[in-house]
Write a structure and sequence with these properties.
The protein is α/β, with parallel strands linked by helices and 310 residues long. 37% of the residues lie in helices and 22% in strands. Strands 1, 2, 3, 4, 5 and 8 form a six-stranded mixed beta sheet that branches. It is globular.
Length: 310
């Protein structure tokens, strides 16, 4: 074990932290730390919870080998400077304006020169998939994370593409107009819950519950068919424009892929028959591995100037 980096995935209500051997890309045994976080709590409580998990991962390694910490962080966030900008997102709003890097250095007793690097969580997923995941065999990839939000990124030879004629503004699709709203309204968990309620008057807890119901409930089953077909139709023009060789998909909703996947694939294949559809098998480690890659100095030189666009 030579150089080691800590990878951290900050979720909407949890933190997941691991130590990774940079030479082998392996997660170090005993370094995994997870903690539930109250995203409505005070800034001190949130930062203490985050620091506790990261500290647990650091304690599993020889600290002298630590090269830095890479974060997969949701937005809005000042990624180049490590400053929280959460507002109007109903999570972590007590952190607004706080320099998170300064807080971590103080709470974890880190050297001032130890790199702490941040990137959008959906982009971190995409970077990991292109680095060590199923998409590593392809150059041009669209990555999707399906969950409480509709995350996406466009990747060319491992580097996120954030501007140009072949990608949407900001290099992602969640904000693009779709039907009566934007894509995020139709391809995230709330869409399932709201539509099932409208059709049945029953409030489902989430997609997992609806996936179970779909075995015997025609209304629930129809939602998954509609979801997959609509997403394929929505993505198809961007797959063509970007000339994507593969689409890699992760996130909690993929656990129900057997209910919507064939309809997604059929819709995409109509105009992009050669594009591969891949399901991530990195699971919860995808985002942290994407964060860890930021500590590769050669890679960092390619990506650091993109952070201000996220």
């Amino acid at each position: 074990m030579d150089e080691v980096a800590i990878g951290v995935d900050i979720g909407g209500s949890h933190i997941y932290s691991v130590a990774v051997d940079l030479a082998t890309k392996d997660i170090i045994r005993g370094s995994i730390a997870e903690q539930v976080i109250d995203n409505k709590a005070s800034a001190d409580e949130i930062l203490e919870g985050w620091s506790k998990a990261i500290g647990t991962s650091i304690s599993a390694i020889d600290k002298s080998k630590l090269t830095g910490i890479g974060f997969a962080m949701p937005g809005p966030f000042d990624y180049p400077n490590g400053i929280a900008l959460f507002e109007r997102v109903e999570k972590y709003e007590s952190l607004y304006g706080i320099n998170v890097s300064d807080q971590f250095r103080s709470r974890l007793h880190l050297n001032r020169d130890l790199p702490l690097r941040y990137i959008n969580d959906a982009t971190a997923f995409a970077i990991a998939e292109a680095w060590v995941g199923k998409a590593s065999e392809y150059d041009k990839v669209i990555a999707l994370t399906l969950g409480t939000g509709f995350g996406s990124a466009f990747i060319d030879k491992g580097i996120p593409v954030l501007k140009g004629d072949s990608v949407p503004e900001m290099g992602c699709v969640w904000h693009l107009p779709y039907k009566d709203g934007i894509a995020n309204n139709y391809f995230s968990t709330p869409w399932f819950i709201n539509n099932y309620f409208e059709k049945t008057g029953i409030k489902a807890a989430g997609v997992k519950e609806l996936a179970v119901k779909a075995e015997n409930d025609a209304i629930a089953a129809s939602l998954f068919i509609e979801y997959g077909s609509n997403m394929g139709d929505f993505l198809a023009p961007w797959i063509s424009k970007f000339d994507a060789e593969a689409v890699v998909i992760g996130g909690n909703i993929t656990r129900a892929y057997h209910l919507f996947g064939q309809y997604l694939e059929l819709a995409i294949a109509r105009s992009n028959p050669g594009t591969k559809i891949l399901l991530s098998d990195l699971k919860e480690n995808a985002a942290v591995l994407g964060g860890v890659r930021l500590l590769d100095e050669k890679y960092w030189l390619h990506i650091k100037d993109l952070l201000s666009m996220m």
